[in-house]
């Protein structure tokens, strides 16, 4: 799922000629180094590696396991005119084969009672983010080294 999500994001930003670092699944031993890279990047980081790093303040973190987006600058809401323009352009780009009529039937039928309810949220964090620290006896690096050789 991580690679599919990373590939989708990469495909969507390809329009803007993405030239940043792209690693769809980052190995634990490289997380700390890659997070500190200057410039834009798309990194697929597994849940097991969450405690290995602190995301930079300007990062956009999409947590697929917890279903939320963490950002310091949330997107602005689109006006009705902007939404209409986007829908029109997307419909045109699909040669009119797909009419914008809401959630597709095949997705609606996949949910009980036809209810498609988004469970995600966008969390806006400004300034320092408080996080739970690992206990003194826990050494993530040593654990990952053992797991690498298991």
TrEMBL record:
Domain of life: Eukaryota
GO BP annotation list: regulation of Rab protein signal transduction
InterPro entries cross-referenced by the UniProt entry: cDENN_dom (IPR001194), DENN_C (IPR043153), DENN_Domain_GEFs (IPR051696)
Any Pfam family matching the protein: DENN
Cellular component GO terms held in the UniProt record: cytoplasmic vesicle
Record's signal peptide: none
Segments forming domain cDENN: 1-67
Protein known as: cDENN domain-containing protein
Taxonomic lineage from the root: Eukaryota, Fungi, Dikarya, Ascomycota, Pezizomycotina
């Amino acid at each position: 799922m991580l690679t599919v999500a990373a590939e989708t994001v990469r495909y969507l930003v390809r329009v803007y000629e993405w030239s940043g670092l792209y690693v769809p699944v980052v190995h634990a031993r490289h997380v700390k180094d890659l997070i500190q890279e200057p410039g834009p990047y798309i990194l697929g980081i597994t849940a097991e590696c969450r405690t290995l790093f602190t995301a930079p303040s300007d990062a956009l973190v999409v947590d697929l396991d917890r279903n939320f987006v963490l950002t310091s600058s949330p997107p602005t809401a689109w006006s009705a005119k902007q939404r209409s323009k986007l829908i029109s352009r997307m419909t045109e780009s699909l040669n009119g084969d797909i009419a914008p009529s809401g959630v597709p039937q095949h997705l609606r039928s996949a949910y009980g009672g036809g209810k498609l309810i988004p469970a995600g949220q966008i969390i806006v964090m400004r300034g320092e983010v408080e996080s739970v620290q690992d206990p003194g006896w826990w050494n993530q690096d040593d654990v990952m080294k053992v797991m690498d050789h298991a």
